[in-house]
Amino acid sequence: GDSVTQMEGPVTLSEEAFLTINCTYTATGYPSLFWYVQYPGEGLQLLLKATKADDKGSNKGFEATYRKETTSFHLEKGSVQVSDSAVYFCALLGDYKLSFGAGTTVTVRA
Amino acid sequence: DAGVIQSPRHEVTEMGQEVTLRCKPISGHNSLFWYRQTMMRGLELLIYFNNNVPIDDSGMPEDRFSAKMPNASFSTLKIQPSEPRDSAVYFCASSSETLKSQPQHFGDGTRLSIL
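^ Those are the sequences you sent over. The predicted structure of the assembly is below.
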């Protein structure tokens, strides 16, 4: 079945550091891929998406590229802010079901 | 635009009591999902409705859990009787269609504590 594996956290960074969170997937067919972000006490918010191979999703300075050859969708941001502290989830959409990674907690220190 | 609205935001009750969680999806969305989030299991899909009809309830833990969607703008998740192991954050999500490119939009969740 479909599954997502993302790097374990927690990740602690200083402001303006470079962030990367690895995500790999296993799926049949051609899934869509997403990154969701969850701030404390809130629901999941869609951060970015990619629907086919080589697509690059981007939002709020975050980027991720759908790599079919490596079955990966790594999240990157060149210069993080304290406000980026949150839990980040990689997700794969099959027919209708979202398969989530375990989540990576990111803490950015001023 | 209003997002997915869940109520209550927090619920604390004693074991054995009936718990009802409510969800109003985004207007025009025809797919609705209930998820449970725990530290141990992460995010689990409990049930999926399409056009108000339950399509996949394989994630519903046991008979104590039931979900309904009487119309396109309202859904409930009921636990009766509740047990301490049901303590979790329950999320409702909706999407406009079930094609692959459409993301699911999540509510802020109901934090449920069963004492």
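Chain A has a mean pLDDT of 94. DSSP finds no helices and twelve strands in chain A.

Shout if you want it in another format.
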